[in-house]
């Protein structure tokens, strides 16, 4: 459900997502497209369809229900649920829609094995290992117990073994990637020695671009880079992400343009005072549109190719920007994300002003009504 009744439009370039996929797939291995959370705000079904056309045959969603919603659109592709079964009803959906769930503990495994045995079907699963995130997963020391229990679960077929990197996008922390990669390698080797045949999967986008030569394993999970964000922007490895193209822009409309005399303040709390006579445009976007109040006095928009800074507090549905010297009028289009030329606003820019990461910007801007171009 998009945010209703506003003037924002989030425009998605599906051809850019396809181009980014091809670039990542060109680095080798099997690439699962991570389209969890409504494809990071770009649209679950639309993104899955265009990637299928680009040759992608495996997708990773978040919840099991998200995978069930996807199944009809891509009847043959592999669908992995990264969250796995959280509630008992998820197990029925896993079997009913042939979803491969990430399984992170013994309780989940036994429940699913029991249900699959009763239904006389196989359950294909991805075993999730914690090699350094300390979030979800079995640990290396669980391997013997896991192998023992799997012997009594003929209905379970281990299709994948996965783990997630904590620092793949931080060149200062590549040593920790190596620690996780080596641990994961030992786990895969031990499971294979016991006769299991599966795809190993460790790398996310940053992992694919920086670590696949050593720790690529068979299958990689590409998320943020598919949507055109370079995970290494601003680091000394920036060139690794060259050539990715942004797939989202968000526009809205100018509501009013007026003069503000030197000494007058703008918006709630009087947090901005004009130091000179200026011209201000009031724009139809605010925190109810996922345009965070954290951007108050910090962010900028792009108007006719020029950066225009936010002045004063972001309100619920309105935000003021300094448009001094730029011709504009009510009804004009203004970019919250994207825009023309070198002053276009990137997801990294917004994230920096907002104090977050581009992932959050895409997920939240994607809650607005979308258009596909
Ligand atoms: C979201 C997610 C990914 C994708 O990560 P990106 O950094 O967006 O490429 C990969 N694996 C898991 C387990 C995830 O949750």
From TrEMBL:
Superkingdom in the source lineage: Bacteria
In-chain residues carrying the UniProt-annotated modification N6-(pyridoxal phosphate)lysine: 36
Coiled-coil annotated spans: none
Pathway the protein acts in: Amino-acid biosynthesis; D-alanine biosynthesis; D-alanine from L-alanine: step 1/1
Enzyme class: isomerase
TM regions (residue ranges): none
GO molecular function terms attached to this record: alanine racemase activity; pyridoxal phosphate binding
Cofactor(s) in the UniProt record: pyridoxal 5'-phosphate
EC number from the UniProt entry: 5.1.1.1
Binding-site positions, substrate: 135, 316
Domain Alanine racemase C-terminal: from-to ranges: 247-373
Family annotation (SUPFAM superfamilies): Alanine racemase C-terminal domain-like, PLP-binding barrel
BP terms from Gene Ontology: D-alanine biosynthetic process
Keywords, sorted A to Z: Isomerase, Pyridoxal phosphate
Pfam families: Ala_racemase_C, Ala_racemase_N
Leader sequence segment: none
Catalytic residues as annotated in Swiss-Prot or TrEMBL: 36 (proton acceptor), 268 (proton acceptor)
An example Gene Ontology CC term for this record: cytosol
Reactions mediated catalytically: L-alanine = D-alanine
Function recorded in the entry: Catalyzes the interconversion of L-alanine and D-alanine. May also act on other amino acids.
Similarity comment: family membership: Belongs to the alanine racemase family.
Protein known as: Alanine racemase
């Amino acid at each position: 459900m998009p945010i209703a009744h506003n003037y924002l439009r989030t425009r998605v370039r599906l051809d850019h997502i396809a181009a980014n996929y091809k670039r990542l797939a060109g680095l080798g291995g099997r690439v699962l497209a991570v389209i969890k959370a409504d494809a990071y705000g770009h649209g679950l079904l639309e993104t899955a369809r265009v990637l299928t056309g680009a040759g992608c045959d495996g997708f990773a969603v978040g919840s099991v229900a998200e995978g069930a919603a996807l199944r009809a659109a891509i009847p043959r592709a592999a669908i992995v649920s990264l969250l796995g079964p959280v509630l008992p009803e998820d197990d029925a959906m896993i079997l009913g829609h042939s979803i491969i769930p990430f399984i992170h503990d013994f309780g989940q495994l036994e429940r699913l094995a029991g249900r699959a045995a009763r239904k006389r079907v196989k359950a294909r699963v991805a075993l999730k290992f914690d090699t350094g995130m300390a979030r979800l997963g079995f640990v290396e020391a669980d391997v013997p117990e896991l192998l023992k229990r799997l012997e009594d679960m003929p209905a379970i077929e281990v299709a994948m073994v996965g783990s997630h990197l904590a620092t793949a996008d931080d060149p200062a922390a590549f040593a920790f990637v190596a620690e996780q990669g080596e641990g994961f390698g030992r786990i895969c080797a031990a499971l294979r020695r016991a006769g299991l045949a599966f795809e190993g999967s460790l790398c996310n986008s940053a992992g694919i671009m920086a670590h696949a030569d050593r720790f690529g394993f068979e299958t990689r999970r590409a998320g943020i880079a598919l949507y055109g964000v370079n995970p290494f922007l601003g680091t000394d490895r920036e060139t690794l992400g060259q050539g990715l193209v942004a797939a989202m822009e968000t526009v809205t409309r100018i509501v009013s343009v007026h003069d503000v005399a030197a000494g007058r303040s703008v918006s709630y709390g009087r947090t901005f005072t004009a130091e000179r006579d200026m011209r201000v445009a009031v724009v139809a976007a605010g925190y109810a549109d996922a345009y965070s109040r954290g951007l108050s006095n910090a962010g900028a928009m792009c108007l006719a190719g020029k950066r225009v800074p936010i002045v004063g507090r972001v309100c619920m549905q309105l935000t003021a920007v300094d448009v001094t010297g730029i011709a504009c009028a009510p009804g004009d289009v203004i970019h919250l994300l994207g825009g023309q030329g070198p002053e276009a606003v990137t997801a990294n820019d917004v994230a920096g002003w907002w104090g977050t990461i581009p992932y959050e910007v895409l997920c939240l801007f994607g809650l607005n009504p979308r258009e596909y171009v």
